């Protein structure tokens, strides 16, 4: 019996990335588990988005490499990478008056032939993505006229239309209210469960990361401090180490995943001065 496991499709090996002279990720190593949902968590400025952009081939490494199927990703043709890895960046700019359907259709670019012919398969993928994200009713409206939450769902639809086996999403729940935030997270969970899509997403909410991810990568100051299943990573010691927040964790009554409960009561902050109390 052969117990050898295939090499992971996406990994970083000695990856160093920076902006000008400022090094953000110094010699990082990371393996993305195939067929799982990975959540990258950590305080603002710790390098989460930089890591995601490097994995997506948007940022070139200063040293080391990101490997896709064993090949340095920056040496592969752009269309080859785009058929395997889809990216939802944190900030997006929409050309004026571009409709929802037109933006979602752009996700099909890597699959279009040499003459850019739109096929029935392209149409089906775009329709499926709009249906999955609940933006069908906006299909003919300009994206720049939608609310922030609606626009975010359209961008998610565009990435889904790309139909890649690996999805990288930088804060995919930004601007979304609670209902739509949960919809997107459940959609990603379903894509993983049903289609086996590998998902890597940057999240700020530790409870959501614990509930929807199989694997958590905790970062601080450009380094991976801990990684593994939520129950092993989201612990009081680690949360205080990463975020400086004393807490306890309790099991989620629905899923059993860790819930973070901060220990500092609201009234324990700095005392108001007499003048501030009087003004209040």
Which key terms come to mind for this protein?
6-stranded mixed β-sheet; single chain; globular; Rossmann fold; 4-stranded antiparallel β-sheet; 32% helix; 280 residues; alpha/beta
Structure explained in plain terms:
It comes from Blastococcus tunisiensis. Keywords: ATP-binding, Cell membrane, Ion transport, Iron, Iron transport, Membrane, Nucleotide-binding, Transport. It is a peripheral membrane protein. It is found in: Cell membrane. InterPro entries: AAA+_ATPase (IPR003593), ABC_transporter-like_ATP-bd (IPR003439), ABC_transporter-like_CS (IPR017871), P-loop_NTPase (IPR027417), Siderophore_ABC-ATPase (IPR051535). The protein is of the alpha/beta class and 280 residues long. The chain has a single domain (10-245), classed as Rossmann fold (3-Layer(aba) Sandwich). Helix content is 32%, strand content 25%. The protein contains ten helices and twelve strands. It has helices spanning 48-55, 78-82, 100-105, 120-133, 148-161, 178-195, 206-212, 230-233, 236-243, 274-279, and strands at 10-19, 22-31, 37-41, 63-68, 71-72, 85-88, 166-170, 198-202, 215-220, 223-228, 247-251, 258-262. The strands form three sheets. It has a six-stranded mixed sheet with strand order 6-7-8-3-9-10, with helices on both faces. Strands 2-1-4-5 form a four-stranded antiparallel sheet, with helices on one face. Strand 4 and strand 5 form a beta hairpin. Helix 4 (120-133) runs antiparallel to helix 5 (148-161). The longest helix has 18 residues, at 178-195.
List the topology elements.
Layout: E1 10-19, E2 22-31, E3 37-41, H1 48-55, E4 63-68, E5 71-72, H2 78-82, E6 85-88, H3 100-105, H4 120-133, H5 148-161, E7 166-170, H6 178-195, E8 198-202, H7 206-212, E9 215-220, E10 223-228, H8 230-233, H9 236-243, E11 247-251, E12 258-262, H10 274-279
Helix pairs in contact: 4-5
């Amino acid at each position: 019996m052969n117990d050898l496991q295939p090499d992971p499709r996406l990994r970083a090996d000695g990856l160093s990335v920076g902006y000008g002279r400022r090094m953000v990720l110094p010699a990082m190593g990371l393996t993305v588990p195939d067929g799982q949902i990975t959540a990258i968590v950590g305080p603002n400025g710790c390098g989460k988005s930089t890591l995601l952009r490097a994995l997506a081939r948007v940022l070139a490494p200063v040293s080391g490499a990101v490997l896709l199927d064993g090949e340095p990703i920056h040496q592969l043709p752009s269309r080859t990478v785009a058929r395997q890895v889809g990216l939802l960046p944190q900030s997006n700019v929409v050309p004026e008056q571009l409709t929802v359907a037109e933006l979602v259709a752009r996700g099909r670019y890597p699959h279009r032939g040499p003459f850019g012919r739109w096929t029935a398969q392209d149409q089906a993928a775009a329709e499926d993505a709009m249906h999955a994200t609940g933006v069908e009713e906006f299909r003919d409206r300009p994206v720049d006229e939608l609310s922030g939450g609606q626009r975010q769902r359209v961008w998610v639809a565009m990435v889904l239309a790309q139909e890649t086996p690996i999805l990288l999403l930088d804060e995919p729940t930004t601007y979304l209210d609670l209902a739509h935030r949960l919809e997107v997270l459940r959609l990603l969970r379903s894509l993983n469960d049903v289609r086996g899509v590998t998902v890597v997403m940057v999240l700020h909410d530790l409870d959501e990361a614990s509930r929807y991810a199989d694997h958590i990568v905790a970062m601080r100051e450009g380094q991976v401090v801990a990684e593994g299943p939520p129950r092993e990573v989201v612990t009081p010691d680690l949360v205080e180490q990463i975020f400086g927040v004393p807490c306890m964790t309790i099991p989620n009554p629905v899923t059993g995943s860790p819930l973070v409960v901060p220990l500092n009561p609201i009234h324990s902050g700095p005392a108001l001065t007499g003048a501030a109390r009087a003004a209040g």
